[in-house]
């Protein structure tokens, strides 16, 4: 190959590479900004399980305080009420309810920061939010992957998913000290904490694959076969080491939710969850059969790849 031809080929290759780079940048494929907090401030703090400290937590960014009894909560819904709008439930999975920071004595606070209130339908006494949805906050950080997962597994009933996500952040994350704006340091970007909270909720949810845990013990949705409360409790206890709260509707006979209680070693975002027995009595009957109903026809779709 002549030297002049080699130079031409090199120039062409360089031009194509530059063009591909320009195209990628033009398509928004530039790097996604991080949303994690600045926990370097915690390096000199003692690490403990929340609610088990024997001295005062000096820096509440380092351990959820006072909301150190952390609940990862899930729903078993049989319909959404918005099927015609394409809001469907994930086949073969319970759905996310939230991540709650109860106080160590079981009490809890809610809507702790009015400046970060994004709930469009809050309870009386809290001003309703009328701005852009929280999904736009996530998109602003380039996290379509996060929105995709939330849209599959964090499903509302009777209202939009986005309203539900906003409710959970506003009611609970604003009362969780490790999501305080101060924990993100001087480089904090507006709504960074919202994205960080949603990521943390999903990490916690993935620790408790309720549908598969129950299924492995022969407990599957059925309109013909019922189960006992003790059977369901023992199945989940055998895999998590603790008895979660089980919620039932229809006078305590229709399984509808589960709450996994934990103390957290470190932060709620990245710490280790130590599952505990529920501090709340189950609303499911201990004497009547418990029904784990199948989803309504047309209310679920396949989401697992």
CATH class category: Alpha Beta
Question: What is the CATH architecture assignment?
Answer: Alpha-Beta Complex
Beta content comes to: 5-15%
Give the domain tally: 1
Low-confidence stretches: 5-26
CATH topology (fold) name: Ribonuclease Rh, Chain A
Mean pLDDT: 92
The proportion of residues forming helix, as a percent range, comes to 25-40%
How many helices? The count is: 7
Order of helices and strands: HEEEHHHHHHEEEE
- Mind telling me the CATH superfamily name? Ribonuclease T2-like
Gyration radius, rounded:
23 Å
Largest sheet: 5 strands, antiparallel
Number of strands: 7
Shape summary: globular
Decide which structural class fits the backbone.
alpha+beta
Termini separation (Å)?
A: 48 Å
Signal peptide: 1-18
Family: Belongs to the RNase T2 family.
Protein name: ribonuclease T2
GO cellular component, one term: extracellular region
Layout of helices and strands:
Layout: H1 3-26, E1 69-75, E2 89-90, E3 95-102, H2 134-140, H3 144-153, H4 161-172, H5 192-206, H6 210-215, H7 229-240, E4 245-249, E5 254-265, E6 272-276, E7 300-301
Parallel strand pairs: 2-7
Antiparallel strand pairs: 1-3, 1-5, 4-5, 5-6
Concise account of the structure shown:
The chain has helices at residues 3-26, 134-140, 144-153, 161-172, 192-206, 210-215, 229-240, and strands at 69-75, 89-90, 95-102, 245-249, 254-265, 272-276, 300-301. With 305 residues, it is of the alpha+beta class. It has one domain: Ribonuclease T2-like (Ribonuclease Rh, Chain A), CATH 3.90.730.
């Amino acid at each position: 190959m002549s030297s002049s031809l080699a130079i031409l080929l090199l120039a062409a290759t360089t031009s194509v590479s530059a063009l591909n780079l320009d195209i990628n940048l033009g398509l928004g494929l530039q790097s996604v900004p991080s949303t994690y907090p600045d926990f370097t401030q915690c390096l000199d703090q003692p690490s403990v399980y929340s609610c088990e400290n024997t001295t005062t937590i000096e820096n509440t960014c380092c351990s959820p305080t006072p909301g150190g009894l952390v609940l990862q909560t899930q729903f078993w819904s049989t319909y959404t009420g918005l099927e015609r709008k394409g809001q469907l439930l994930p086949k073969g999975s319970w759905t996310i309810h939230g991540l709650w920071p109860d106080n160590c004595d079981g009490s809890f606070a809610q809507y702790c920061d009015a400046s970060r209130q994004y709930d469009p339908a809050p309870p009386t006494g809290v001003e309703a939010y009328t701005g852009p949805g929280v999904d736009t906050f996530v998109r602003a950080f380039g996290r379509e992957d996060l929105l995709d997962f939330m849209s599959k597994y964090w499903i509302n009933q009777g209202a939009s998913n986005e309203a539900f996500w906003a409710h959970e952040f506003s009611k609970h994350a604003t009362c969780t000290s490790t999501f305080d704006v101060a924990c993100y340091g001087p480089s904090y970007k507006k709504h960074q904490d919202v994205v960080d909270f949603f990521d943390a909720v999903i990490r916690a949810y993935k620790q408790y694959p309720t549908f598969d845990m129950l299924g492995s013990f022969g407990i599957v949705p059925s309109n013909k076969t019922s189960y006992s409360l003790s059977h369901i409790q023992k199945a989940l206890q055998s895999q998590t080491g603790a008895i979660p709260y089980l919620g039932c509707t229809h006078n305590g006979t229709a399984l509808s939710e589960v709450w996994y209680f934990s103390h957290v070693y470190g932060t709620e975002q990245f710490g280790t969850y130590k599952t505990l027995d529920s501090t709340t009595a189950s609303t499911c009957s201990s004497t009547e059969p418990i029904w784990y109903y199948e989803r309504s026809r047309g209310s679920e779709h396949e989401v697992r790849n």
